[in-house]
Design a protein that fits this description.
The chain is α/β, with parallel strands linked by helices. The chain has one domain (3-338): TIM Barrel (Alpha-Beta Barrel), CATH 3.20.20.210. Helices cover 50% and strands 13% of the residues. Strands 1-4-5-6-7-8-9 form a seven-stranded parallel β-sheet. The chain has a two-stranded antiparallel ribbon with strand order 2-3.
Length: 341
């Protein structure tokens, strides 16, 4: 019994629409905040497989989402590649040593840092209802590289973009190394029980078109090809945030089975511009979920209606906000579940 989400990702245009929300497992939920207060910091939670499994399941228990997205972080890959990782209060993640100042070869890989994540997947899958889909994920190589080079997030990824222009060979080596680890990491999640996986490219929108081809499309195509060769029945969702008009090329050239859309994409345009029959995911503005009310309902219906003729997973255009009222989530999901197009 694969469930609505997996059926949709495999190309079926089902009713009612399946729904899950990016960052649905996390800080807007009081049960998450209570567990974090008990267990400690973010990274400690990620590496406590029992706690991470509980967090992954919390939104399924509360709202009955169609997919459970693994509670983890995209920076687990550089952590396994040998960078130190810390999440600092009020500052976000920090990686060291920065590859802006140190060679990739100076890192000593620690692959055992991936095993607790696989244990979390196994624990979730053992508890998940049969009609709910276990979703794994990883960061796409470009986005992961921006953190590895700069050591932290940045507004325009200038250090990483500059390195990519200045030393093509060195940056290609970083991308290739991330790609190889990501393939193994996603394969490990699938072997542990993930039924579909998503590639998050949060900073794809900062690249010029030729750079997008090299640093986004090419490595994602390599990852998708490797996963499809080993696991032909496991869909890969690509989410290149900010890609805009480059989305059709991404959809055609990466080989992803489904495409996530951010909130800046006109769903009517996407419905006409993307390959026919390709499943899409998205793309309500997360701020609308915070606002709630008639405008949230109007725009959610607009998204649903725009994608009525193709497989569609209802989701947000990015992660759910920390201040999102719980009742708004329930109201949105009720609207989606009652829509039949």
């Amino acid at each position: 019994m694969p469930g609505l989400l997996l059926d949709t990702l495999r190309g079926e245009n089902v009713r009612p629409r399946p729904a899950w929300l990016m960052r649905q497992a996390g800080r807007y939920l009081p049960e998450y905040r209570a567990l974090r207060a008990e267990k400690g910091g973010f990274l400690a939670l990620v590496y406590d497989s029992e706690a991470a499994a509980e967090i992954t399941i919390q939104p399924i228990r509360r709202y009955g989402m169609d997919g459970a997205i693994l509670f983890s972080d995209i920076l687990i890959v550089p952590y396994a590649m040998g960078q130190d990782l810390a999440f600092l209060a009020g500052e976000g993640p920090h990686l060291s040593p920065r590859l802006a100042d140190h060679a990739l070869a100076s890192l000593n890989a620690v692959p055992e840092r991936l095993k607790p994540i696989y244990d979390t997947v196994k624990a979730v899958k053992a508890q998940l209802p049969a009609d709910k889909t276990m979703l794994g994920f990883a960061g796409s190589p470009w986005t992961v590289a921006t953190y590895m080079v700069a050591g932290e997030g940045s507004r325009d990824q200038h250090e990483t973009r500059s390195l990519a222009y200045r030393d093509r060979a060195a940056f290609q080596a970083i991308i290739d190394a991330i790609t190889a680890v990501t393939i193994d990491y996603l394969a490990g999640q699938i072997l542990a029980g993930a039924e579909a996986v998503q590639l998050f490219d949060s900073w794809a929108g900062s690249l010029a078109p030729s750079e997008f081809e090299r640093w986004v499309i090419a490595p994602n195509a390599a990852i998708v090809a490797a996963i499809r060769a080993r696991f032909p029945d496991v869909p890969v969702i690509g989410f290149p945030k900010g890609a805009g008009e480059k989305l059709p090329a991404y959809a055609r050239e990466t080989g992803v089975q489904a495409l996530g859309l951010d909130e800046t994409i006109d769903p009517v345009w996407a419905a006409g511009a993307l390959p026919g029959g390709m499943p899409v995911q998205g793309n309500l503005d997360p701020l609308l979920l915070i606002a709630g009310g008639a405008e949230m309902e109007r725009q959610a219906l607009h998204v649903l209606e725009a994608f009525a003729d193709r497989p569609h997973v209802f989701n947000l255009g990015h992660g759910i906000g920390q201040t999102t009222p719980l009742e708004h989530v329930g109201e949105l999901l009720n609207l989606v579940r009652n829509w039949r197009g």
